Amino acid sequence: MTRDQAVSNSLVAIHDRGDGLYNQVLVIINGVVNFDEVAGYCTQVVGAGSGGSDTFLNLAQYQKDSIEYNEARLSGRDSEVACLQDAWDWLTTGLTGTPHSVAVVVVGNIGPCIPCQRRIKAFRDAIVHRFGADVQVEVEVIYDQDDASAWDTERSNIPTTYGYRDLPDSSLSDGTPVWRYQVT
Ligand SMILES: [Zn+2]
């Protein structure tokens, strides 16, 4: 299976869940697309409200009741939170040996909100820190919301944006249109 096929399968599984925001995280080690939990890992399709640890965004860094604080708090049970934690747990306790490359694809039907974009960035930084400079690390976000790569909206009266702005049109190898964002 190619990486694009895995992403395409993931989008099908996500859309099978119906309405709502869903994510699945694929972890590809040494370029081999195999999710047997030894050679690589794939999380469940996770919906909003899943909870779990919010390792990648520390509320304490923000002034209480600032916009950043409130949006971080409001998003603390977003689907990305549980997915990133699950992938991180596998990378740190399930993966054996030292890989030469770690590629993570965060797949979703809607792009990450601003605080989840911060979480995904912190997740990438944590992988780089964990594995060191000799390991090639790549984190990509792929989603297929309609019309535009970024949607402006409000959550509990606080403005936020789902997805990354101004991404070029892209598609998977089977023609599925997607937005792709390379996290740096
Ligand atoms: Zn979010």
Provide structural commentary.
The chain has 184 residues and is of the alpha+beta class. It has one domain (3-183). Helices cover 30% and strands 26% of the residues. The chain has four helices and nine strands. It has helices at residues 3-16, 67-74, 79-94, 114-131, and strands at 22-29, 40-42, 46-47, 101-108, 136-143, 151-155, 158-162, 170-171, 177-183. Strands 1, 2, 3, 4, 5, 8 and 9 form a seven-stranded mixed sheet that branches. β8 and β9 form a beta hairpin. α3 runs parallel beside α4 (114-131). It is globular, with a radius of gyration of 16 Å. The relative contact order is 0.17. The model has no long low-confidence stretch (mean pLDDT 95). The chain binds zinc ion. Zinc ion is lined by residues 75, 78, 80, 112-113, 115-116.
SSE diagram, text form:
Elements: H1 3-16, E1 22-29, E2 40-42, E3 46-47, H2 67-74, H3 79-94, E4 101-108, H4 114-131, E5 136-143, E6 151-155, E7 158-162, E8 170-171, E9 177-183
Helix pairs in contact: 3-4
Residues 75, 78, 80, 112-113, 115-116 line the site of zinc ion.
